[in-house]
Amino acid sequence: MVYDMNNIRVGEKEARKGKASPKNYHKGVRIFDSRPDEFIKEIHDALEARTYHTSKPTVCDQLCPCGKVRRLTKLPYYPDHIVHHALMNVSYPIMKRFYYYDSYASISGKGMHFASKRVKRYISEHAKAGRLYWIKRDFVKFYHNINQQKAFDCVCDLFGDSGIRYLFHEAVTVCEQGLGIGLFPIQPIANLYTCGVCREVMRRFEVRIFVYCDDILLIGEDKKEVWKASNFLEEYANKVMEQPLHEEVGMQIIDNEHFCDFVGYRFYMNRTHLRKRMKGTFMCRMHNIKDPMIRYQVATSYKGWLMYCDGFSFWCRVMGMKSFKELMVPKFEEVDGEGKRMLKGTRCSASIFVGREIIFRDAEIGVRSKFSKNGREKKSTLIQVEEHGQLFKFFTDNQKLIKTMEYVKNQDGFPFKGTLVNMNKTGGLPDYEIE
């Protein structure tokens, strides 16, 4: 099923998402697009004969939005990205059925907001206790310290097919130690890797455990049970998983005055707020950003966070609005450095419209040209036209045409229909007029 030609094509479409746009045309995608059928056939033959081996990775450090510097592992688009997506198309639906339910990272249908809903639900169901106890534990460099053999054994417990095992072994052993952050199969493998300890804690102790990546939250009504679960978790991680936990640990409470900090939110007994650091960042960015579109994009991002907590009053105070619906996409025109409008349309030559009736929609006079005349900056006129519903634009220095555009603009005569005619029949520079 993995090396089926149709599955490989589907995997290639999934792998190219975000890499084939005009502004971000990935080098590996460009190479693949030169001979797509041949490359897919080569992947099929290599997987069928089991001669595929993972390429040599490139390791780099990258600053993430959370402020941490993470060591990422990168592989070529062809064949590794395509093979990994083809593998996960077949194996992920099976792996997902065996995940611990309250594990949320990189699982379709879950995520941070789903995690916040589950935590709020647990707190509300146990609100009669008046107070809950919680401890948060996290692994030391989780992905880099994972035992490759133990992670591979977790996969082998689900899949008996030797071909599937061979492909997962290639993905797990990319790095000399641990699992490579940034590879597509790694997060699903890591989620499966932590399921054992989560189920063991839930079976032994009267607590609830929530997991997001390497962050583990333990909540319960009984203080002793939470401590026992935390100690067992540390012992299990050290002896069974061979995965050290951070030693800084302390128990805290949840009530109407004290909160639990998890997945970007502060959970009180009777309310939920956004994390204080995120609030401060949001206020600073709204104060400093002046560009309307960037301001809208940032506000939209934080709106998604605030809608899942009691953040409506905070939103109204920062944004000066009375509801979330008041946030609208800003309307603006693209301008150059001198404030001249850069009219929309496909850039082309005026000569292609000669003798054809078109719609003259707008014009901007005095736009700076990249060409100079006698050492001085040259100004041109930008004209926007429409033909068959499609917008075009072209520059011109023809004085007759410029004067016509100035007159029409002063008389507010746009748009109008006309035919562009070249009055110079003897060759040389064109002499355009509108009929």
Model description:
This protein has about 425 residues and is of the alpha+beta class. The protein is built from 14 helices and 15 strands. The strands form four sheets. A six-stranded mixed β-sheet has the order 10-13-12-11-14-15. A four-stranded antiparallel β-sheet has the order 4-5-3-6, with helices on both faces. The mean pLDDT is about 90.
Q: What's the β-strand tally? A: 15
Query: Describe the biggest sheet?
Result: 6 strands, mixed
Task: Trace the largest sheet across and list its strands.
Answer: 10-13-12-11-14-15
The proportion of residues in beta strands is 15-25%
Average pLDDT rating: 89
Shape: flat
- Which class best fits the helix and strand makeup? alpha+beta
- What proportion of the residues is helical, as a percent range? 40-55%
Radius of gyration: 30 Å
Count up the helices. 14
Q: Enumerate the spans where pLDDT stays under 50 for 5 or more consecutive residues.
A: none
Task: From the structure above, extract its key features.
single chain; alpha+beta; 6-stranded mixed beta sheet; 14 helices; 41% helix; 21% strand; flat
What topology does this entry show?
Layout: H1 5-15, H2 27-34, H3 36-49, E1 58-63, E2 69-74, H4 77-97, H5 112-125, E3 132-138, H6 142-145, H7 148-158, H8 162-172, H9 186-204, E4 208-212, E5 215-220, H10 223-239, E6 252-254, E7 260-262, E8 265-267, E9 272-274, H11 276-288, H12 292-306, H13 312-319, E10 346-347, E11 357-373, E12 376-387, E13 390-396, H14 399-410, E14 416-422, E15 432-434
Parallel strand pairs: 10-13
Antiparallel strand pairs: 1-2, 3-5, 3-6, 4-5, 7-8, 8-9, 11-12, 11-14, 12-13, 14-15
Helix pairs in contact: 1-4, 7-8, 7-9
